[in-house]
Amino acid sequence: MAVVVVAHSRRSSPEELTRLLDPATYEVVAVPVRTSLIERLAEINPDVVVIDGSLADFDVMRVCRDVRRSVPSRIVVVAPPFEGEAWVMDALRAGADDVLDADASEAMVRTRLMAIVRSGPLRDRGPRRLVVGDVIVDLDGHSVVIGGDIVRFPVRLFRTLVELAHRPDTVVTCEELLHDVWGVEPLPAHRRRLRVAVSAIRSLLGHGPQRPRIETVVRVGYRLVTASVPSTAA
Description:
alpha/beta, 8 helices
């Protein structure tokens, strides 16, 4: 049975979407969009995520990018009313596999949802884990293994580490981290919170000969620097 998650606003009623999928064929789980969304998706491991942006009261594009980075699921976005072609293109660029109009007929929504579900999950899209030195970030299991030991990362720290590990030895700006992970603008108070989070990640990573380290690029952002391990003769 395919598992479908409907990610919805806390002000919306997910029943309108969930009733369009036959409960004898699909297991449908409604999850509100909030900071724990990605953690819940990692636990559920759905085949399809339907992001209900019909009320336009959260950043649909950011949520779409977060889901695409974190779980190997197909993504359907329900657009707010009266959005045009540019909005649809932005959603597709953010990772959506299909975009539905909020005012589309019930028959159209049901048919297109069924078509996406039938096409199956994207188990082969993107890495299932990121390996940097002796740090393994398991995207599906939402876990981090450091030097062979499992280390628990709170969800915000995990997502920050994922952003850095996706681009090792490359500067990730504070603006990118605050927008994509924290969902806020880079105000001074938010930058301080980011510095505290990076400091906590450094403590969790610890030190080792193969351990990557987080380097601060002043007034720009952070870089996950891969360890330089001397080569040894065989």
